[in-house]
Specification:
The protein is an alpha/beta fold and 338 residues long. It has 2 domains: 131 residues, NAD(P)-binding Rossmann-like Domain (Rossmann fold); 191 residues, Rossmann fold (3-Layer(aba) Sandwich), CATH 3.40.50.720. The chain is 35% helix and 14% strand. The chain binds nicotinamide-adenine-dinucleotide (NAD). Nicotinamide-adenine-dinucleotide binds next to helix 4 and helix 6.
């Protein structure tokens, strides 16, 4: 299928070209993000391929529809950035990659927890400077600590398997408990009990109207002093300003983020020679007990291969049958969030 592929980096092209070798889709790559300004580039393309920070709200979808686009193929699992009702009304089918490697995200979550706990970000720099002082690098044993996992789908389950293996007591919260997680020893509790009892809280739920700013001032007020908070899910699940106050009051003792509320203006680009204009993000960078990665939790070779294969497989299935098992229906969400 002739497809306009937005937000593409050289690594995206490499994996997509390889997966396309036997499929023969006509892929035309655009580096910019999909937005109201760039949507006209897709004129004449029956399919558009988009990533996590591409805008797929109504005005963009209307432009795509006017240009003849009938399919939006997401190269990601999350679809919080798509106005599914508008897409349905415009006759645009939205397909996605429901699972590509939950292990990639779960293992990055573990990397963040370990690096933050043992202060690897500080130790790395110190040793390179010839400073072998241990002051400020004190960590804690993970074994025996209580970890709270919010959202126990594919990624949450993989995280629970890892944390159980390390010897953590695992509390879980999810409106739809997962038996496999219970079998691993996780105990389902209310969200407030999870907040109050956990030494480490890690977020693996989708962004929905219910989870927007789930971590806010009230939630932080019930957490254990010194708690470690990890968000590899979606930025808007955390109220960043409230978290900054939590860091200042030392209620939050460690913070790891792979996603950020306003990441669309920052992540996936080299801005190293620019002045940072996001004051909230700049404030986060001042804390010694904060680690931020730029939405890289998914970024493993295996995940990229699976994303490319499933994305192009979705297009092939639509070409061949007019249907796709990975279609996202507007009925699965109550309202779009972006
Ligand atoms: P999944 O659909 O398998 O699991 C999500 C779970 O969250 C489900 O069990 C669901 O019942 C639960 N949930 C829904 N609302 C909830 C709520 N209010 N409280 C608690 N749990 C709730 O999804 P997944 O594959 O495990 O992915 C989880 C999220 O991870 C995605 O939605 C996406 O936002 C994020 N993600 C991030 C990256 C990254 O690179 N950082 C990559 C992939 C996915």
């Amino acid at each position: 299928m002739r497809t306009a592929v937005f937000s593409t980096k050289p690594y995206d092209r490499r994996f997509l070209d390889r997966a396309n070798a036997d499929l023969g889709h006509e892929l035309v790559y655009f580096e910019p993000r999909l937005s109201e300004e760039t949507a006209p580039l897709a004129e004449g393309y029956p399919a558009v391929c988009a990533f996590v920070n591409d805008a797929l709200h109504r005005p963009v979808l209307e432009t795509l529809s006017r240009g003849g686009t009938k399919v939006v193929a997401l190269r990601c699992a999350g679809f919080n950035h798509v106005d599914l009702r508008a897409a349905e009304a415009l006759g645009i089918r939205v397909v996605r990659v429901p699972a590509y490697s939950p292990h990639a995200v779960a293992e990055h979550t573990l990397a963040l927890i370990l690096a933050l706990n043992r202060r690897l970000h500080r130790a790395y720099n110190r040793v390179r400077e010839g400073n072998f002082n241990l002051d400020g690098l004190l960590g804690f044993d993970l074994r025996g600590k209580t970890a709270g996992v919010v959202g126990t789908g594919r990624i949450g389950e993989a995280v629970i398997r890892i944390l159980s293996g390390i010897g953590c007591t695992v509390l879980a919260h999810d409106p739809f408990p997962n038996e496999a997680c219970e079998a691993l020893g996780a105990r389902y509790v209310s969200i407030d009990e999870l907040f109050a009892e956990s030494d480490i809280i890690t977020l693996h739920c989708p962004l929905t109207p219910d989870t927007w700013h789930l971590i806010d001032e009230r939630a932080i007020s019930v957490m254990k002093p010194g708690v470690m908070l990890v968000n590899t899910s979606r930025g808007e699940i955390v109220d960043t300003k409230a978290v900054i106050e939590g860091l200042k009051s030392e209620t939050i003792g460690h913070l790891a983020l792979d996603v950020y509320e306003e990441e669309g203006d920052l992540f996936f680009r080299d801005l190293s020679d620019r002045v940072l204009s996001d004051d909230v993000f700049a404030r986060l960078l001042t804390f010694p007990n904060v680690i931020i990665t730029g939405h890289q939790a998914f970024f493993t070779r295996e995940a990229m291969e699976n994303i490319a294969r499933t994305t192009l497989g979705n297009l092939s299935e639509l070409d061949a049958t007019g249907r796709c098992q990975n279609t996202v229906s507007a009925d699965v969400v109550t309202a779009p969030t972006a």
